[in-house]
Amino acid sequence: MAKAGNGEGSIFPIKNKKGKTTGYAVEMSLGFKANGKRNRTRRQVKTYKEALALRTRLANDFLDGRLTIINAETVSTYGIPWVREVKAQQVRQTTASDYEARLRREVFPMLGTIRMVDLRPAHVDRWMASLRSAGKSANTVNGARQVLGAMCKHANRTGIIPTNPVLATDPVKRQKGEPTQVQEPWTLDEVYVVLDAACDNALDGFLHVMLHLGLRPGEAMGLRWEDVDFSKQQLMITGTLTDAQVFMPDGQGVVRQVRNDPKTNASRRILPLSDALAESLDRQQMRQAVQEMSAGNRWKHTGYVFTTQVGTPFSLSNLRKKYQKFLHEIEIRYIRLHDLRHTVARIALDTGKVPIEQASQALGHTRIDTTKQIYAGYVPRYNEEFVAGISQVLPASSRPNPPEQGPAHVEITGS
Which fold does the domain 188-362 belong to in CATH? Predict the structure, then answer.
């Protein structure tokens, strides 16, 4: 059977070892590679009639620009190189590691063996439904969907797949009453108890920084003494420190501490030190001096504000354990470390003394809309001010008296 030019397609019989035809291959040329060799894609069917129909369809796809090269890349074999060789050049190491962890944990178990060219919206929908049935939260499912969508976007842009199947699906919605890890922020009374008890605890400085400034946990952990200026009564947020799962070439994950630049440009900020906060940091310096003397040659000069007995920065997991133990001892209900940030924002806004614009800037949000989206609906003061304001322009009575009317005047028209 004769070969054809670009976009015309060729049909070849497929034979077994005995020379018997077992099917037909349809091959389409897509032009030339950078090295001068032809770029070809091939599909297989069982009958010659199917091959003729397939050649026509592929030729039409070629003319429409929708024909791509079929290869054996699966979701898993494509995903790992995409994260390590492509995405790692565009995002932080911790973000790339998080992408890989999500792929390995949520995506690959169900979709990993499917070829990229065979991945369809129906696969994605069933996968998300399966994760939800397994008890995964809406945030977890949508986060994994976002990573899969970014991967398919790259595959589409590079010609591996004709379209991105994730775009034809919708993210899942959080159901009313669905459990969440987010805890109700502390009240002002609870904050008073925590800060008072913390003065005699190793978490003294950390909790004062978190509850006075509303930092992200990684920002507090990444705080260095060079970022603190007692003479000017201020500190600078210059980076974050976090535990990141880093994957080795063999796929084994190890946890390492990674320091990154602030989350956004707005996150790089200068914040004032209140007297209480400055005193707590002064106590932290004294604690470190005592610990350094006790550790002797084992002391590591890392420069971080919050450290272990030998000067190394706390790992997030160890910090959580100390935090949980402390709350248990003082009989205060547990909320996550990140919920301390929510506590500060809610208290600040609820007092009415801190404009939301100031809160947004201090929290390091890029846009004030972010602050409003997260907190405005939870602050009763805004609702109260709205009702009070609208009540001033509406009638004082629930049913205003209608104006007096005279006898009805009826006009009769018609032929």
Answer: hpI Integrase; Chain A (1.10.443)
